[in-house]
Write a structure and sequence with these properties.
eight-stranded mixed sheet, L-fuculose-1-phosphate Aldolase, 37% helix, binds zinc ion, two-stranded antiparallel sheet
Amino acid sequence: MQIEERLRADIVEIGRRLHDRGFVASNDGNISVRLDAERLLTTPAGVSKGFMTPDMMVTTDFSGRKLTGEREPSSEILMHLAVYEHRPEIEAVVHAHPPTATGFSVAGIPLDRAVLAEVVTTLGSIPIADYGTPSTSELADAVRHYIRAHDGLLLANHGALTVAHDLFGAYYKMETVEHFARISLVARQLGGERLLSREEVNRLQGLRDRYGIAAPAPLCPPAREEGKEGEDVSCQVLEAPSQPGARLVEAQTVGSGGAATRDCHLGLLDPDDGIRLTYRELTALIADAVKQLR
Ligand SMILES: [Zn+2]
């Protein structure tokens, strides 16, 4: 099978999987792959990713100009182009709206806690790229800010984006992002994650070479904030507190600056804290609870 023919078939297959798993609804999502130094093969606009055929694909140049295909390229192609421009080693990009990961992006909660060994080893942290209107250069700029240092991103109030050396690699990373989001959600419902210590994280990242995993960027030093205003992010912020000798760290012992502060911003209260409601708020809460019961 010719390379292009195989890549068209792979995009069809990945589109079907994204659709079957509920990672996209309607015509959401898009997939692209490098064909050669001048051309990109991408999904067409306005088509369900679950019902594509190989002949529907569009080829473009690296400025997004259509070269061949009966249909138009995806309207979110600019975001893909930003990836290819800044990550010459990346061959494929997958964008979807998987519900749990997208829920984190809507809630403004990045997936940046060291929780699962596999995720630490493969993706590291998954930050949230700022909101940008879909199909505009705003979104491409938001992606550009983070993509040098990450293989998986959440897109604020939108979805997720993953990149890899081949199509299936990018797709599997999308599965990992959604799976990680679901596990994180359940752990938080059960009282919160126990985190991997920084020592353990360093050990896991040291195993990357053995498994042939190329890290997009090193971890940021503990006290460092990721990319300053106007500066592209060059390292990964991963919440993994230093606790000498400990491999797992209890959530409540997580440093005062990290999770605790952020949880406060999210409005998560300490269960021992008192809470004061006005009579009107209390009445509304009770009315709401009664409604839920019906
Ligand atoms: Zn989208």
